[in-house]
Amino acid sequence: MPVFHVIGLGSMGLGMALSLRRAGHEVHGLDLNPAQVAKLTQAGGQALDAQSPLADALICVVLNAAQTEAALFGADGWAGHVKPGGTILSCATVAPDFAKRMEAEAQARSLHYLDAPISGGSVRAAEGALSVMASGTPAAFDGAAEALAAMAQTVHRLGDHAGPGSAMKAVNQLLAGVHIAAMGEALGFATSQGLDLARVLEVIRVSAGTSWMFENRAPHVIEADYTPRSTINIWPKDLGIVTDIAAGANLPLPLTETALAQYRAAAEAGLGQEDDAAITKLVAARAGLKLPGDA
Predict the structure, then answer these.
(1) Domains and CATH numbers, the chain
(2) For 182-200, how does the pLDDT look when each residue is reduced to its tens digit (9 = 90+)?
(3) Which of 169, 237, 281, 290 is catalytic?
(4) The pTM is what?
(5) Is residue 169 among the annotated active site residues?
(6) Is 3 helix (H, G, I), strand (E, B) or coil?
(7) Which residues of 194-231 are buried (b: 16+ CB within 10 A; e: fewer)?
(8) 44: phi then psi, degrees, rounded to nearest 5
(9) DSSP 8-state code for residue 118
């Protein structure tokens, strides 16, 4: 039976670890929040520590590039707890050049590296139904195969080296971030016109203006439920990666830059830890509009 280590048991990582357990694998997990580790152990997984057996594959599901590098190759990095010839699956949204550098670090340690950013949200992570935008050597794909079979519904093979996976994730995040910001403006506009937001969702979801993000996030606003599935704070990071990559290509992205400014403003307004549907609150507040749940 292969041994899997999962670094980062947040809303995505925990679901991925539980999917691995459901498939019958031995899973050791690590997170700064002991409650998340407890959820894994309650499902038959184990806490990851220095006494844990070496991993056949390590799945790194942390927030950003800095955390990825520290978790893998820092002073206490867990790459040293992967079997020689084992595989690292790196799932954070990072710049392609960073992914290439991490691949070189892994290969220098006789490890395979799969550039494997993920999409689908916490619900699909828990269902083992993620979309993975992956690139890496054939050996990296082979080493990741059992983990991917348990965690993903769709694996997009995008190249034989790290970088294209992260580039594709940046495309996805550009669209997702702009769509959520547009959702917030649309619901704010609808509110200003006295429309019932539940009715707006009903009509738009069968009309040309809909998007997956509109249909997924608008109910959060209608239900006044801003429990974070994906936070506002994710977007200054992810859209910042997009605009940095575009700047390197001398490519203006005015829509993305405008959306990025809105997320930064929302974070500065104290909404950073709320669900990203809370971008609607920023729109409404500027016109003194009341959203569902407002007194």
Answers:
(1) 3-161 (3.40.50.720), 166-286 (1.10.1040.10)
(2) 999 999 999 999 999 999 9
(3) 169
(4) 0.94
(5) yes
(6) strand
(7) eeebeebbeebeeeeebbebbebbbebbbeeebebbbb
(8) 100, 0
(9) E
